[in-house]
Amino acid sequence: MYTKNRKLGVTLLVGILTVTTVLSIGWYVSRPQSQALAVNNNQQPEAIQITVATNPVVSDKQADMRTKTVNGITVEIISAKLIETGIEVGICYSTPDGGDWYTMPGPLSYGLYEVLPDEAEFISEEKANGKNMGRRCESIRYRIDDLDTLTMPLQFTISGFWAVPRELPPCENFQQRLDTNPQARALGLKAKCSYDEQTGISVMLAEKAASVAREKAQQVLDGIVTGEVNGPWEFLITELDK
Length: 242
Hints:
By secondary structure, this protein is of the alpha+beta class. The chain contains 6 helices and 11 strands.
């Protein structure tokens, strides 16, 4: 009798526990997900990350570099200031010969913005004379409609330089630039020039110093003919002049 009653009690207890477990599982599954996440104190829902653009970290070495030389041409930033219409950057640059050399300024970048140059103004010039390179200075202005968007540093670039053809016969213009080019004079270069309206200007090496390779001499002549010097010259402006 005792054995039968004991078996009956065990059976009833197992049944009750089974029903309780099923009800508990059903209750847990039926709860909202936010409640289920709150139960686990060791795990948190993954946060949404928002990336905010920041200005690059500038080292002291980078900040001090307002003069750079690329392909034999030195560019120096002489001023960088806030003006009524935006930003004005003053530069001086060396010129390889006595031609009329002008800049090809690149964009001014800051934060998420990039501004194209608006205008350039001539300041001063010393022409190359065959012994020394020339030096030309000008101001480059960038129009910024909303100055509140301006953040430091500013990334300023000069893409290149080119010699504007003067109102002279092409070969005369070439000869004047050859005569005032210190590198060409140091190499002892002389050339023969011809011009055709269909094919343009043609230059042939006529004389060079004995120690100068012909390829090097021709390279210098070709550079005078093309009248271009490519960069870029890149600067990081960390503060504006007051």
